[in-house]
Specification:
The chain contains no helices and 11 strands. Strands 2, 4, 5, 6, 9, 10 and 11 form a 7-stranded mixed β-sheet that branches. Strands 1-3-8-7 form a 4-stranded antiparallel β-sheet, with no helix packed on it. A hairpin with a 6-residue loop joins strand 4 and strand 5. The radius of gyration is 14 Å and the shape is globular. The termini are far apart.
């Protein structure tokens, strides 16, 4: 069973930055895909960004374009979410997801609170 561990959440002021990380335990797939989701209070989970093992990136949420970037380190089995120019509406629990073949593995989430 692949385990995902997220880190990097916390409280940040509007306009600030945070970098989230999500590290996976051992797996043997050579091709895979990472996604970051978020779920704001009282709202449905939203797909934000995705990146493949080959480096292909897709931005799904228009609200983060130009502010959030996704990257990965294949050797470390880790995906990152760099969040800049944070806004109060970015407040949410952020989840990483790893797709290996036909299986999806989820992290437990990390809370990001944007507030002054």
């Amino acid at each position: 069973q692949v385990q995902l561990v997220e880190s990097g959440g916390g409280l940040v002021q509007p306009g600030g930055s945070l970098r989230l990380s999500c590290a996976a335990s051992e797996f043997t797939f050579s091709t895979y895909a990472w996604n970051w989701y978020r779920q704001a209070p009282g709202k449905e989970r939203e797909l934000v960004l995705g990146i493949t093992s080959a480096g292909g990136i897709t931005t799904y949420a228009d609200s983060v374009k130009g502010r959030f970037t996704i990257s990965r380190d294949n050797a470390k089995r880790t995906v990152y979410l760099q969040m800049n120019s944070l806004k109060p509406e970015d407040t949410a629990v952020y989840y990483c997801k790893l797709r290996l073949g036909f299986m999806d593995y989820w992290g437990k989430g990390t809370l990001v609170t944007v507030s002054s």
